[in-house]
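Severity: low
Component: inverse-folding endpoint
Summary: output formatting inconsistent between runs
Steps to reproduce: submit the following structure tokens with default settings.
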């Protein structure tokens, strides 16, 4: 017995948490936590995805030790300014556009779920974006795919 091939449209979440490229790391972190998601597309003003930011990207960025000296400030090599060079830099104000992955993988609503799953597995990513003429209309995550596995059991 053949089963009907399911399309991404049946599985996608149209309520996508998005961030503008100028959002800061701190704002992105708050948004992801508040909405209970592990990552979000970064979109331009026209709703076109230009990148992806994940909690992992944010955590990695925030955990890196950053001082004024490490940030390339000229006084890091001048003895009189060593104290300034050791001052911690607030990394939460970095725009997400500097951290986001620019590798955006998208599918259309008509794409089969198996194709979306294959993209995610091959690229080792946890989300694919669903677009219509380049504009973001939904998202499919690895957790969404697990729902189908549950249905099979």
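Observed output (run 2 of 3):
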């Amino acid at each position: 017995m053949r089963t009907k091939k399911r399309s991404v449209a049946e599985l996608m979440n149209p309520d996508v948490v998005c961030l503008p490229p100028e959002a800061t790391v701190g704002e992105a972190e708050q948004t992801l936590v508040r909405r209970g998601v592990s990552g979000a597309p970064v979109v331009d003003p026209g709703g076109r995805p230009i990148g992806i930011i994940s909690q992992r990207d944010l955590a990695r960025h925030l955990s890196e030790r950053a001082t004024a000296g490490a940030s390339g400030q000229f006084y890091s090599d001048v003895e009189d300014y060593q104290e300034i060079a050791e001052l911690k830099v607030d990394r939460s104000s970095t725009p997400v556009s500097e951290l986001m992955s620019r590798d955006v993988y998208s599918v259309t609503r008509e794409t089969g779920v198996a194709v979306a799953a294959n993209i995610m597995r091959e690229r080792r990513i946890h989300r694919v974006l669903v677009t219509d003429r380049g504009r973001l209309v939904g998202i499919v995550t690895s957790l969404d795919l697990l729902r189908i596995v549950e249905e099979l059991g």
